[in-house]
Here is the input.
Amino acid sequence: MLEITNLHASVGDKPILKGLTLSVPAGEIHAIMGPNGAGKSTLSNVLGGKPGYEVTAGSVTFRGEDLLALDPHERAAKGLFLGFQYPVEIPGVSNVQFLREALNSQRKARGEAPLSGGEFLKLAKDKAALLKMDMEMLKRQVNVGFSGGEKKRAEMVQMGILDPAFAVLDETDSGLDIDALRIVGAGINAIMRSPDKAVLLITHYQRLLDVVAPDKVSILAGGRIVETGGPELALRLEAEGYDSVMA
Amino acid sequence: MTTATLPTRRDEAWRYADMDGVARLGVAALDVWKEITLAPGETRRHAMVVGSAAPELHRIRLTIGEGARAELFVTNAGGDYTRVEVEVRLAKGAHFEFGGVTIGGAGVTREFVTQVIHAEPEATSNQTIRAVHWGGATGNFLGEIKVARHAQKTDAAQDFKGLLLEAGASANAVPQLEIFADDVKCAHGATVGELDEAARFYMMARGVDPASAQRLLVQAFIGDAFVALEDEAERETLLDAALAALEGAKL
Here is the structure.
């Protein structure tokens, strides 16, 4: 579903990704772990198409298409979802307004009819309930005044509403307490665990992987995937640390 | 009495004006004032959209009686020079609420010029102005607040924010406070910035196309000016008129 081949990317003049190759087929939850500064967030930002990240070599193919040739909103309409490590606050725009605009923009790009206000609210209510989020919160401004945990839960509500084929989740577990971690993990499973969907789960900790069991785990270090294994690789990392596993 | 000559840029109140636009207005236009007097305890609200293919000058003089409340909301758009001047005189315990948006590109100049006189004690005023410009256009706000010596417990606030969508556009804010009483609250703030790129990327990452993302962000930005406008239909009219001006923008 997602094929990354020999990807090189820079921020400013600084090369961060240096020949990253990774393949994630449909039905797979693939965890990416790695030390600070390895390029994990750069990978997610490059996949999302964030301005300021320059791809200098390599390719990314998503469902058979050249992902890097698409603008961020076109990538979303093709079924890519980027879960932000630091969700952005948008004063003056409500979650409901924002997400209805987002969903209907995507549907329009795919040649589908827009959802009416009523249809959208019903969908939003279902997905909010999945993440145990009060509908009142969705009527508030996007992420404004939300705690760190609420922002991450709101990201997952967004994912539920937009129903992507592929999710890149950048440290979705950061800032979550244990209860919120379980809710968010269960949300990821409910929304994304499917034979025709896939997830790239970027995380520092095993604790999220206890809830969202990965099919594969890769270690990203120095801008490259240095090792790929099964779930046991994450456990080894947790027990022994990066230095010993990568040595 | 007629004004003998057109103002010049040396005149403080006209220093950022479009003098060609002023010349097109002509001398006669400068003498037209709309005088409105609110009786004690009266409440009156007016919402208006300014702007057409020709230059426009609107001069309003408001006298607000004791305990009365006047609310004025304006979308300042159009295809030529526009200037809205408001002179307000507040009696004891009166309130003046002003919300204004200047929006436009194509090199136009838009202005709000307000003079709010707190002539008696315990009056309040609140002014919220938002300016959104591109294409070498300019948005100006000249806001004067005068508090008379015995106008104790005055509470006056003025808030200006400019959003420049392109390099080359500009916004000018000139707050001018003259306070002769000692027990007063006068707050004023002015900032000018660009569109929040992080918010725009966040929206695009969720599938919102760039033009819609920009429209949503501009709508949120100018919405502040009309928060105090309780009539939803009127608020929609003013917002729609402002956003319609944005539709023409080639950004």
Remarks:
- Chain A has a mean pLDDT of 93.
